[in-house]
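Q: What does the assembled structure look like for these inputs?
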Amino acid sequence: MRSYGLGVTRWSIGDLAKASGLTVRTLYHYDEIGLVVASERTTSGHRRYTPDDVRRLYQVRSLRQLGLTLEEVRSALSRSDSLRPLFEAQLAALNAQAQHVEALRSRLTALLDGHTTESLLSTLEMMSVYESYFTADQLTDLRSRAASMGPEAVEALKASWLELVQQLRQHMADGTPATDPRVVELSRQWDALGAKFTGDDPAIKAAAQRSWEENKSSISTQIGWPADDGLVDYVSQARAAQ
Amino acid sequence: MRSYGLGVTRWSIGDLAKASGLTVRTLYHYDEIGLVVASERTTSGHRRYTPDDVRRLYQVRSLRQLGLTLEEVRSALSRSDSLRPLFEAQLAALNAQAQHVEALRSRLTALLDGHTTESLLSTLEMMSVYESYFTADQLTDLRSRAASMGPEAVEALKASWLELVQQLRQHMADGTPATDPRVVELSRQWDALGAKFTGDDPAIKAAAQRSWEENKSSISTQIGWPADDGLVDYVSQARAAQ
DNA sequence: ACTTGAACCTCCCGCAGCGTGAGGTCCTAC
DNA sequence: GTAGGACCTCACGCTGCGGGAGGTTCAAGT
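A:
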């Protein structure tokens, strides 16, 4: 910082960086994109920040500390009307982000609590391959069943399952109504295949049926499958139209 | 998907994208970086994914859903030892992220609850310019005082304040001990300047003094100033050495 | 007056994880 | 034969800077 008499005060980029706690590179960047520009230059080209520039920088810094992007900061400073809507939107975004992080956390803790070290990846793979349409309890059953079935049979079932899912997604993408006979037929194959996985033990079947109904809406968030996927509901509708 | 008899099943990139819910571009990307490569190609160069490729893709997808980066996924799949340490590290990272989001949220809600629409930005600016060394209540007082002082006087004070902060940061960076006479002198200027801001109303002064002592450790987190900044403590030490 | 080291300047590449064309080839169906 | 969809390979764009190269300029000491 440097005084030129009569209260005329200018800042060099390095001093401003130290005072604000930002880096010189960051100030260059803000200058480049026109967010905080040094209003003056020395004859040799060195930036000189005026008090107005400094004030703007501190405004930018405080808005950044609320988690806004640089573009959001720019528009916040350009429009003179209320900042409240912007802040409320930001709060909503933060809430969504918090929810997302929380979902990841709960899944990870559940995984770490419930499974032995070696089974982590295989459990994950099962969860993923079977498209999250079974609960964690069911997956435990399934793994033991898979072990007794032998790897080839499991591979064959997987392939069938994947083909089913792919065809159903195709119909969804095409906008085929769930009541379409072809979709209904696929949903029956879906259930039949599910039965092969769950086996013919009536206790497991009943439990699968029950937990399916109970969890179908929460499974997607539990396992992290995007909630707007809709495949589960699609199949449910087809099953109902049967 | 396509069968070539005897259970030999290959997937085209489009079908695999539909079945997995990822985009074709994503599969290209995974192929480019060698994360999930199509083991085969047709004579014309079209990718054919084998069942092993498909399984690997689902493993990748499930690990991605836990919030791992692509590099973390790669190393997780390459090393055959336990995934538990990796998952625990990821959980720790998620916890830190949750804390960060929570801090932002609380600051925003506090702002939205406590201030009128028009004062949001000016409050933020004050908070930022005065380096978070006053509480929100004090800032309310200060704004009214600033209004009665006139803008030029306020600017002059701001400039002095910024210069002080810059010099103190410089001493901190240089490793000057807080007991150094120069630093002690600066801390006295700091207090004197603070007195100018808080005015000579003894009630405000006392409140400022009290809340300063009460809040000095929590202010940084409240306002979001990095906790490792240390400038507040540095000044406190210098004041004590006086 | 000269030197030296710190501070400053302007390019420019890099990062994660793809999105989004551009421009060309291939495959299948009619 | 041809239309349209699926596939291919570049290659640039996004966020918010970090970091380095290679060249001036400034302030202080001799």
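Chain B has three domains: 2-79, 81-114, 119-240.
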